[in-house]
């Protein structure tokens, strides 16, 4: 799995540069639908972007991104050109990632909540990441640059921050394949610490779907592929979107 990814990334060389999307302002605020938006059924119905509010897309390059992050981002953007990969926009509120049809009534109302990995406004201090989806391979990759506020052991990322980015990547992958899901189980083996400010590639894929159960696996590696930082398996359960989370919890 990983070897394929490295091969793909290497095969593209480093010459690609970012073309500004005319519908995306410099600060990453999306106006209407971006051509870079993914095209799975779930995201197609995401005229979510088009309506009244302007949403900031946090998965666009900013000045905190290292050269390594920029290079990798450019390579994946290049791979988006033939439609094999899709860049996934990222917003500060999880509800904005769902199409209107999947939102519960209570979720349609705006709340002062923030998606956990997007809860810091200062660029570069927390989770800097961008995701790309390969629908035919049922695979989601995430380029992740952990900032100084994610410290665990001195100079290295906290294990919880690694778990968060794995859960988000694997969860995003599961959502594309199965719709509305919740993490039921996430098992992580931490192999090598992730230096703060470095760039790693979180590579996840759906291995199997059995009824409501979605099984996934994931590896976190350095961008040269030489260092395995973590590997994980996960079980996500498709939830009945007609039932509120509260109802599901109270029936347990
Ligand atoms: C855009 C942003 C993306 C970010 C993604 C981030 C995702 C998240 O972090 S979600 C938050 C963390 N997760 C949670 O809080 C989930 C808490 N748990 C729950 O809500 C429920 O237990 C839930 C929804 C997972 C399953 O509940 P429910 O729908 O009642 O399913 P339930 O009937 O118990 O189980 C269904 C099947 O799954 C199995 N199953 C459920 N949980 C587990 C588990 N932990 N391990 C193994 N099997 C399980 C059951 O055994 C059952 O199997 P079978 O059909 O063969 O009998």
UniProtKB/TrEMBL annotation:
Catalysis performed (reactions): dodecanoyl-CoA + H2O = dodecanoate + CoA + H(+); octanoyl-CoA + H2O = octanoate + CoA + H(+); hexadecanoyl-CoA + H2O = hexadecanoate + CoA + H(+); (5Z,8Z,11Z,14Z)-eicosatetraenoyl-CoA + H2O = (5Z,8Z,11Z,14Z)-eicosatetraenoate + CoA + H(+)
Signal peptide (from-to): none
Pfam families per the UniProt record, alphabetical: 4HBT
Cellular component annotations (GO), alphabetically ordered: cytosol; mitochondrial inner membrane; mitochondrial intermembrane space; ruffle membrane
GO molecular function: long-chain fatty acyl-CoA hydrolase activity
Keywords: Apoptosis, Cell membrane, Cell projection, Cytoplasm, Fatty acid metabolism, Hydrolase, Lipid metabolism, Membrane, Mitochondrion, Mitochondrion inner membrane, Transit peptide
InterPro entries: HotDog_dom_sf (IPR029069), THEM4/THEM5_acyl-CoA_thioest (IPR052365), Thioestr_dom (IPR006683)
Main EC class the enzyme belongs to: hydrolase
Main subcellular location: membrane
Membrane topology note: Peripheral membrane protein
GO process terms (BP): fatty acid metabolic process; negative regulation of phosphatidylinositol 3-kinase/protein kinase B signal transduction; regulation of mitochondrial membrane permeability involved in apoptotic process
Tagged with keyword Cytoplasm: yes
Compartment(s): Cell projection, Ruffle membrane; Cytoplasm; Mitochondrion inner membrane; Mitochondrion intermembrane space
EC number from the UniProt entry: 3.1.2.2
PANTHER family (UniProt xref): ACYL-COENZYME A THIOESTERASE THEM4
Family: Belongs to the THEM4/THEM5 thioesterase family.
Protein name: Acyl-coenzyme A thioesterase THEM4
């Amino acid at each position: 799995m990983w070897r394929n990814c490295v091969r793909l990334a290497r095969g593209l060389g480093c010459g690609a540069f970012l073309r500004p999307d005319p519908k995306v302002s410099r600060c990453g605020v999306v106006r209407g639908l971006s051509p870079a938006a993914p095209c799975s059924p779930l995201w197609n119905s995401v005229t979510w972007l088009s309506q009244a509010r302007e949403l900031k897309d946090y998965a666009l390059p900013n000045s905190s991104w290292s050269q390594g992050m920029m290079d990798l981002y450019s390579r994946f953007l290049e791979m988006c050109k033939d439609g094999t990969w899709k860049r996934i926009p990222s917003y500060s509120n999880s509800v904005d990632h769902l199409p209107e049809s999947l939102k519960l009534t209570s979720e349609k109302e705006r709340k002062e909540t923030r998606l956990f990995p997007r809860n810091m406004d200062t660029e570069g201090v927390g989770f800097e990441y961008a995701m790309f989806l390969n629908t035919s391979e049922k695979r989601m990759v995430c380029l992740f640059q952990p900032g100084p506020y994610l410290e665990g052991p001195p100079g290295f990322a906290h294990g919880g921050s690694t778990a968060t980015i794995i859960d988000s990547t694997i969860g995003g992958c599961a959502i594309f394949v199965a719709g509305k899901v919740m993490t039921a189980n996430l098992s992580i083996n931490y192999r090598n610490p992730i230096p703060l400010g470095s760039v790693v590639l979180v590579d996840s894929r759906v291995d199997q779907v059995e009824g409501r159960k979605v099984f996934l696996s994931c590896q976190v590696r350095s961008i040269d592929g030489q260092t395995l930082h973590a590997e994980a398996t996960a079980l996500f359960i498709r939830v009945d979107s007609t039932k509120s989370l509260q109802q599901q919890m109270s029936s347990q």
